[in-house]
Specification:
This protein is of the alpha/beta class and 722 residues long. The chain has a ten-stranded mixed beta sheet with strand order 3-1-4-5-8-9-15-14-13-10, sandwiched between helices. A three-stranded parallel beta sheet has the order 23-24-25.
């Protein structure tokens, strides 16, 4: 273990000293039944274990795979380790409540999740077309879960056993915890807590919350009294006693703003870089008062302050207020300083406690080393399940992301503080796969997580980290307090690939290349030993206007990484390629910027195969941008600059077509657009032109019919630059 790693562990332990370890609770009496090979998902399996009932029943839209990458297995095994008897109802027929009775009445509560994905994203494409497959279902069969599964499953649980509490969680519930724009219905929907009528909502990683909920209910506490658990939300009729309410239900009026209580207070890069400096507001008002950074957390009793968001009834009709609510929520996501939030829905309030504190390394290690079989339930073993096939030989080494990309919701769900497993725990899991997982041939498919290379990266000043309100630690530039040393990760790779029986370890998670270039020795290790011919990276775009709305680094970072990648590939004697990913139709992207991106792709000989239109997922900042056509990254008013947003099938199809400028099917729509744009100069067969002229394209050597077969084969195989 390096000195840096040891120091990080000491800081983490100090920060977490006031937290109760999730494995330190006194076990429930039912622990005498021991460990189940699989958590039962039928009544006969439950009887075979000697149980007369389940204490907790988990309902999920995914098929049951007993692997820590599947939420139901992870939460189920955690509760089992606490002594509770846990049953699984996976992918039940939701047409009636009868399938929800197969394990009988749970003694404590139902835990409901849509699965590892939001059910709407799982079932529909970015063009709102129905998918006919489902990677989390045996044999990839679609239609095994309902739309808005959390709502439907909760209603069926209530029908089956009306007196049993229902706790909802997972990605779908987490990202729909307040009034949110719903892309599929093109309207703002109420909190999923309100629509489902669940008793409690768990948001973020749910281990701390679900452990406390289970133990308190087992001690006889009523579900309505569990109102003080971080990372939970619930419905209330009246203002909670003992709380100071900060009214942010309207966009701030011009003039002097109290900088202490303003939900807009956010530190700039300079503040993070200078611990003794003053916090600056991102407000346009010169009248705001600057407050020393270390006084921010002390100036209010944040543990008893709650911010009132604009009500559901307001945000459904006011796009600026919707963007404002989104902005305030995102600024209250740091567990170190986040305040409670409340939002009115009719005659009730949705109350959101502050986010949960991250798990320590010791807790995460123990969680991932619970006795998973790492296999689908025996009922499914003959069926192929794409999601399982993808991760069966992979290792999750961390959680969270401090990138803050506006189109992604990882930060809002898993948090900005990276939760790391220890190197020894990761090595033990590799050995577990090697020795016990069927069909293992010596290849680890991925060593990563939400990102490939944020393991052990963190703020070097925990006091500053606890009060920081930046939405990203790496945009517009990497914070000077961010430790970017990839040395521990490089050592992990080296140790792992030297294990007996391990032939190769791949890194398949998305790489944050603006961080990687800070550690050339890491890039060399990665390129030399852990790339299987192709490496995925995500510039997402080339134009600064779009990148600023995404909170992504400029294209120069890509060029810097590309130079390193090619240099180290050459030194290793390997022919390897970068696979870049781009997003079309992102909010703030004009058609001119998409044309520039297409020209860049052509200039760099990229012929993209699979491309993606922006998908407005719930709670993402970019989704608020899409709906409101305002930029919630800046202070909002009714005079705020409007953000161009590609809405409607035609313009979204055009944006996507420009990413595949080389496909003859897209040439007519691109030619029409270029003429309307006054850019007919880009039509023709020249190197600087985008698509061939209409009257010439059938005889053009660029047309697939006339392209040499060798070139066709090469393009299909490489899908990237020469």
């Amino acid at each position: 273990m390096s000195a840096n790693t040891s120091s990080d562990n000491k800081k983490q332990k100090k920060r977490a000293s006031h937290l109760k370890n999730i494995f330190s609770y006194e076990q429930y009496w039912a622990e005498c039944y021991g460990i189940a090979q699989y958590l039962p998902h039928s009544y006969d399996e439950m009887l075979d274990l000697g149980w007369d009932s389940c204490d907790v029943i988990l309902v999920s839209g995914d098929a049951y795979v007993d692997h820590p990458s599947f939420g139901m297995a992870l939460i189920g095994r955690l509760l089992e380790s606490q002594g509770f008897r846990v049953g699984i109802i996976d992918q039940p027929d939701w047409q009636s409540c009868e399938p929800f009775k197969i394990l009988g009445r749970p003694n404590l509560f139902f835990g409901v999740t849509a699965g590892n994905m939001d059910s709407m994203i799982n079932r529909y494409t970015a063009d709102r077309k129905l998918r006919h497959d489902d990677a989390y279902t045996p044999d990839d069969i679609g239609g095994k879960r309902p739309d808005r599964a959390v709502i439907v499953y909760t209603q069926r649980c209530k029908e089956a056993w009306s007196d049993v509490p229902v706790v909802i969680g997972g990605i779908e519930a987490s990202l729909r915890r307040i009034a949110h724009y719903d892309y599929w219905s093109d309207k703002v929907r109420r909190s999923v807590l309100f629509d489902s009528k669940a008793d409690l909502l768990v948001f973020g990683n749910g281990e701390r919350q679900i452990t406390e909920i289970a133990h308190r209910l087992s001690r006889g506490e009523a579900i309505e009294n569990l109102d003080n658990i971080r990372g939970t939300a619930y419905m209330v009729k009246h203002q909670q006693k003992g709380w100071m309410e900060i009214d942010s239900s309207r966009v701030d009026r011009p003039g002097k703003v109290d900088a202490v209580v303003s939900p807009y207070k956010m530190m700039t890069q300079d503040v993070c870089s200078k611990p003794g400096s003053e916090a600056q507001s991102d407000s346009d008002s010169p009248q705001e008062i600057a407050i020393p950074i270390r006084q921010i957390i002390k100036s209010l009793d944040r543990n008893h302050s709650v911010i009132r968001l604009p009500s559901y009834e307001k945000v459904i009709n006011d796009q600026v207020l919707y963007a404002h609510a989104s902005r305030v929520l995102h600024l209250e996501t740091n567990p170190g300083n986040a305040r409670a939030l409340v939002q009115r829905h009719g005659g009730n309030d949705v109350w959101l406690n502050p986010p949960p504190f991250p798990l320590t390394t010791e807790e995460l290690d123990e969680l991932f080393e619970l006795p998973y079989t790492r296999l689908p339930h025996l009922d499914y073993q003959k069926a192929k399940m794409p999601a399982y096939e993808m991760i069966r030989f992979s290792i999750n080494i961390m959680r969270g992301c401090f990138g803050g990309c506006t189109f992604c919701s990882i930060t809002e769900h898993e948090g900005r503080v990276i939760q790391n497993r220890s190197e020894d725990s990761i090595i033990r899991e590799i050995e577990e796969i090697r020795d016990n997982v069927p069909e293992f041939k010596g290849y680890i498919s991925d060593l990563g997580g939400p990102t490939a290379n944020m393991w052990r990266l963190a703020c070097d000043d925990k006091e500053i980290e606890s009060v920081c309100r930046r939405l990203s630690c790496v945009y517009p530039r990497i914070c000077s307090h961010m430790n970017t040393d990839h040395g521990p990760l490089t050592h992990l790779y080296q140790r792992a690939r030297k294990l007996p029986g391990i032939k190769k370890i791949f890194v398949a998670s998305g790489l944050r290349y603006d961080l990687a270039v800070r550690s050339p020795e890491y890039v060399k290790e990665l390129v030399t030993h852990h790339v299987g011919g192709y490496l995925k990276i995500a510039p997402e775009h080339t134009e600064e206007g779009t990148l600023s709305k995404m909170m992504k680094p400029d294209i120069d970072s890509y060029y810097e990484f590309k130079q390193m990648f090619e240099q180290f590939s050459k030194e290793a004697g390997k022919e390897q390629y970068l696979i870049p990913y781009f997003i079309a139709a992102h909010p703030g992207t004009t058609i001119e910027e998409m044309v520039n991106l297409a020209l860049w792709l052509k200039e760099n000989n990229f012929r993209l195969d699979q491309v993606q239109n922006f998908y407005p997922s719930p709670m993402a900042t970019a989704t608020a941008m899409y709906h409101s056509e305002r930029n919630p990254l800046k202070k909002l008013s009714y005079k705020s600059e409007k953000v161009f947003t590609a809405k409607g099938e035609k313009i979204r199809r055009l944006h996507k077509a420009l990413l595949r400028y080389h496909d003859p099917k897209n040439w007519p729509i691109i030619r029409e657009m270029l003429r309307e744009l006054g850019r007919s100069d880009l039509i023709g067969d020249g190197d600087k032109q985008l698509v061939p002229a209409e009257e010439k394209h059938k005889t053009s050597p660029r047309h697939p019919v006339n392209r040499p077969k060798v070139q066709k084969k090469f393009q299909n195989k490489k899908r990237t630059q020469k």
